Amino acid sequence: MKYHVIDKQSYKLHLINTNKFKTISVKVVFSDVVKREEITFKNFLSDILVFSTKNYNTRKLLQIKQQDLYAMNIFSSCYRLGKLYNMDISASFLNDKYTEEGNTIECFKLLSEVIFNPNINNFSFDEDSFNIVNEMTFNQINSVKEDTRKLSLIKMLENMGNNEIYSYHGYGYLDDLNKINRENLYEYYKDVLTTNKVDIFVLGDIDEEKIIEIVDKYFKFKTIKNKKDDFIISHDKYRKYSKKVVDQANITQSKLSIGCKLTNLTKYESNYVLPLYSTILGGGSDSKLFKEVREANSLCYYISSSSNKLDNILFITSGISYSNFDKTIKLIKKTIKDISLGKYTEDDINNSKIQYITMLEQLLENPFQIISSYYSMELLQNDDIETRIKKINDVTYDEIKELSKKVHLDTIYLLKGAE
Amino acid sequence: MKKITIKGLDQTLLFEKINGLKVILLPYENRRDYYVNYTTKYGSVNLEFMNESDKNYYCSPKGTAHFLEHKMFEQEDGVDPFTFYSKTGTECNAGTSYTKTSYYIYGLNDINKNLNYLINCINSPYFTDENVEKEKGIIIQEINMYDDNPDWILEEETQKAIFKNHPIKYDIAGYSDTVNSITKEDLYKCYNAFYNPNNMFLVVSGKFDVDEVVDIIKNNEKLNTRNANINIKNKKIDEEKTVVKVNTEVFCDNISVNKATISFKISLDDIDDKYEFHLYLSAIISILFGSGSSFKEDMFKKGYASYIDCDRMFIDNFYIVEFYAELLNDDVSKLKDEILFRFKDFKVNEEELKRYIKVLISSIVVGSDDPRVFADSIISDLINFDTIIDNKFELIRKINYKRFNEIRNNLDISNNSIVVLKQNNKI
After folding, report:
1. Is B89–A60 a contact, with Cβ atoms under 8 angstroms apart?
2. Nearest CA-CA distance, residue A284 and chain B, Å
3. How far is CA B60 from CA A66, A317, B230, B321, in A?
4. Among candidates A98, A250, A350 on the partner chain, residue whose Cβ is nearest the Cβ of B365
5. Which of A188, B243, B298, B352 is the most exposed place for a label (fewest CB within 10 A)?
6. Across the interface, do B362 and A59 touch by the CB < 8 Å criterion?
7. Do B138 and A59 touch (CB under 8 A)?
8. Percent of chain B having pLDDT more than 90?
């Protein structure tokens, strides 16, 4: 795998050359500082751009065009990374080897059409497309009600710190959706294209010269370069006695979410010690929480922990019976405490290391995960995968114990089910 | 081993029966990862069965297949597979559906050791009163978790509305009372019946050494000392061709939008070639209702539904086509009329069928890049058609307009059922 970056001033072009896949994968990342009121706008925009374009002005026409290009796939997504909110417009299509000469260039042209030639009439988005995407967005925002596990997590974060950036979520907000119309969405689109930081990734068995030429020709951004922002969220306060909130819901199973704040982690700790700590605590079926809460006490079907190093928060989630709430909390607290007392073995550490390293190596088997890992290198100035593997192997027992002192159980939230 | 080259994919497939077990190998050159899937043709619907020598059918409690899935990872030496696999960073998991139970591992390291361990695990059950009892609390929490999922509730209600006698109408995991009634004797009985090598497949795909993997399977003592001469007879289910209920309304507390399924129950009694039927019906559905059609946009503009999806399923001698819709209008009959109209009277030209063939071939090529996707497609063919379809591309290229129209015109879509899931307004 060969990688290099070309700084084109208005965007960076990242070329990843590998013959591992039959497809070529392209991702265009638009990145900006998150503002709560823009999340819904950006979600809406990302959906409407891939819905129809000026020349293919219904979903059907755009889809048929994609099918003609040997089932070219175009998709978009939005997500928050610490203090940033990103929009990705991505595409994947078969290499010319499996289709016909010239298919690749046609695919780039269509992706360019999606980004630069949206379905605009009279300075506003096409009405039919707008109405459909509006309904889709409305349903997406509401759908959180049905995912009670996710809902519990969102409520926990809101209870941890209302209006804090870490409580912003990607479903979007109804009050913001009501403000979106065809005109201001177009204004927002122009704003994104000129102010967001842009990275373009192209991965596959590619002729680099040719790709540079194609991208040059069809992707003309006039981005005003962003200043470099600090996008990692840090906490200067945490609760000495954790906050406990129980909300009623008409559900069968109670959904438990626990949030711990992480304070004063060094970059090394965030990147290398935290993932091991989190894996040992609740990273999988071999973790302390799984063994204690599920296997030894039969209290749940799922329990896991995960960490977000950009938000500096560690989460624990589980589904339990309400009658077991207190018992479960006690066991979770005990498990966390045990780790801080050093009750874990070299075996636990080695297993978590190999799990983490395998996860890193598996990233290399999926085109879009390879792209994400290069993006995080670009964004966070992260080490490359080989260096990461080496450094994670060197993490010690004491470093994990040291980190455990920086984990503060802050908020316990229960979406209460049947008694 | 029998070697089959899949044309158009640069992909080799090797096949051999080892002590009754169907073994399929899909070696990849340029990957580092591997995937192993060990599947038994035993799912939640296989409730009543007998051995050849038995006089009567044995009726197992609902949820036994799923319970077994949970217990297969229990080992006599006390080391559980999760701990074993975590030492090499290998993922392991299992799943139970209506018609199969699968165990799989996915990783990068030590395939030989890991494969051998999986074969040992599946061929040496260890059930005790105590470990069976312990699992009940966990499974009941799993059932509770699904009970809070509206899409799951809608799916369960849909099966109940379609099938009168078929056990597909029961929850895959069973119910609190049936799960609580399950004993270690039930588990052994079902294990011995359905986990015999004759009833199972083992697919290995990705990066591995073919000779070494074959050696491991051939030399695994636990597998090769199993009795391969067991033939299980599943009780034949006398299912009616018509649906149970044409219209059903169900209420639920935590839904965000009213939704519905519109299902078509199609009998395969008069179909000679199930695979051909599946190919053409998939083409019909995709062209009429898929993303290259105007169906979804039209239904939105007419104010019927904001989102529609379509799924298909084989179950015994039935083919079920199920539309899932998020509703803009609670009167679903109009949406159903639109679907009926399109099935029968909507114009499809030959060019659309040709485009469909091109797209289908492209998507199979893309899918073959991932050893997991490719292995799973082989397993699904084995479950649905009882064979490895090695000439798929040839069959797809043979799809033609004349036969398309024949199958479309003969399609009996008169047996259908609507289930609507509505927000519960009763306080």
Report:
1. no
2. 8
3. 50, 34, 18, 29
4. A98
5. B298
6. no
7. no
8. 84
Residue type (1 letter), A220: K
CB atoms A351 and B301 under 8 Å: no
In one letter, which amino acid is A386?
E
| pLDDT of res. B427 | 43
Report the alpha-carbon distance of residue A282 to residue A271 in Å, rounded.
17
Query: Nearest-CA distance from B404 to chain A in Å?
Result: 20
Across residues B346-364, what is the average pLDDT?
A: 94
Backbone phi, psi, residue A366, to 5°: -125, 125
Instruction: Say what the ipTM of the complex is.
Output: 0.87
User: At residue B26, what are phi and psi to the nearest 5 degrees?
Assistant: -125, 85
Lay out the sheet containing A243-248: strands in order across: A243-248, A407-416, A254-262, A313-320, A303-308
Residue whose C-alpha is closest to residue B215's, from B379, B31, B18, B15: B18
Q: Convert A214-251 to b/e letters by CB count within 10 Å (16 or more is b).
A: bbeebbebebeeeeeeebbbebeebeeebeeeeeebeb
CB contact under 8 A, A364 and B32: yes
Q: Which pLDDT band, with edges at 50, 70 and 90, does B6 fall under?
A: confident
Measured between CA atoms, the residue of chain A closest to residue B259 is: A139
Contacts of A412 (CB under 8 A, 6+ apart): A156, A242, A243, A244, A245, A256, A257, A258, A329
Give B-chain residues touching A146 at CB under 8 angstroms.
Answer: 149-151, 254-256
> Which has the minimum average pLDDT: A225-229, B322-326, B356-360, B416-420?
A225-229
* Residue B254: predicted pLDDT: 83
The reply to whether B297 touches chain A by the CB within 8 Å rule is: yes
pLDDT digits (tens, 9 = 90+) for B242-251: 999 999 999 9
Residue A317 contacts B, CB cutoff 8 Å: no
